[in-house]
Amino acid sequence: MRRWLIERYCNNDPARFFGWLAGERKIFLATGCGAGFSCLLFFGDTLRDHDYLGVDISNAVGVARERFNEIAMPGDSLRADISNLDIPASSVDMILSEGVLHHTDSTERTVKPYPYTQLTPDPPHG
Fold first, then answer.
1. What domains are defined for the chain?
2. Which of 24, 28, 76, 97 has the lowest CB atom count within 10 Å?
3. Of 39, 25, 22, nearest in space to 95 by CA
4. What is the pLDDT of residue 126?
């Protein structure tokens, strides 16, 4: 599955993935993180060098916390509606929404604020 995620989000180029993570510590926001499975697969041990916040409207964030704790992986999980997050401008380096946006009432309304207000001035580009 990690190979599929790299193919999907990095044009099948693992160097692009590691390029995004190079340099200073990054802040990742996983919207609709569910139980954290995709993020743990995609980021793997690189999460130890960055800050992670997983957000989901369901109780699955509790499972995500358990998964992260079981492997001593740093990160936080928050049960919230991703359409109504109050995140300061320029505070997030990367947003991952894997398999969630089609479940929202309005994909456009959900994602419209993120790329232009929450991302830092020089985010990685896929």
1. 25-118 (3.40.50.150)
2. 24
3. 39
4. 46
- The predicted model scores a pTM of 0.77
Q: Which residue has the higher pLDDT, 103 or 121?
A: 103
3-state secondary structure 19-33: HHHCCCCCEEEEECC
Q: Angle at the Cα of 57 (from 54 to 60), degrees rounded to 5?
A: 65
Query: pLDDT tens digits for 23-82?
Result: 899 988 888 888 999 889 888 899 999 999 998 888 999 999 999 999 999 999 999 887
Half-sphere exposure of 38 (CA within 13 A, CB side): 21
Average pLDDT of the chain? 80
Structure token digits, residue 120: 């830092």
Q: What's the token pair of residue 80?
A: 């919230």
Q: Label residues 40-66 b or e (16+ Cβ within 10 Å = b).
A: bebbeeebeebebbbbbbeebbebbbe
